[in-house]
Amino acid sequence: MAVGWKKFTGKSQYPELTANDQGSAFTYGSKRDRGFRMGWIQGKKKRNTDEEIEIINWINHITSEKVSTSDPLESLHDGKILCKLLLRINPNSLLKPVNQKPPLFSASENVKNFIDSLLNAGFIEVELFEVTDLVEKRDFSRVCKTLQFLRERAEDIQKF
């Protein structure tokens, strides 16, 4: 549709489907348009920004950090702030110390430490996000759901 509309009007707001010479690699638009995402194809749901902002403000309040409301995945992807949040709720809750190395080396280890610590505190796997959701900055809605469960159970974890 985008190609036909572009031929008809001379412009299109949608990227075109392109392929390499062998037809083996398809992309939507040129490499410049990779920021364009089709949520309905990727299975992404509508985000509840009010809940997300509420969770981010809670994190900022507990940790005294400045997590960005415009791009929270960028602030949280290395896992250090999440580990700090868990330590503020209960200083004995982390299974391993926080890895302070640069994010390239420590991100997945810190996020896995956070998730494993929540499992140890009684969370079930269905309530938790995947490590790749945060490290690869994929899906903040799943991360937000886990943080909502954490906020609801913060008092129980303090006793743990």
UniProtKB/TrEMBL annotation:
Pfam families the record matches = CH
InterPro entries in the record: Calponin-like, CH_dom, CH_dom_sf, SM22_calponin
GO molecular function, a single term: actin filament binding
Query: What superkingdom heads the lineage?
Result: Eukaryota
Q: Which Gene3D superfamilies match?
A: Calponin-like domain
Q: Identify one Gene Ontology CC term for this UniProt entry.
A: actin cytoskeleton
Q: Which GO terms describe its biological process?
A: actin filament organization
> Coiled-coil segments, which residues?
none
Span of domain Calponin-homology (CH)? 49-154
- Protein name, as recorded: Calponin-homology (CH) domain-containing protein
Name the species this protein comes from.
Caenorhabditis angaria
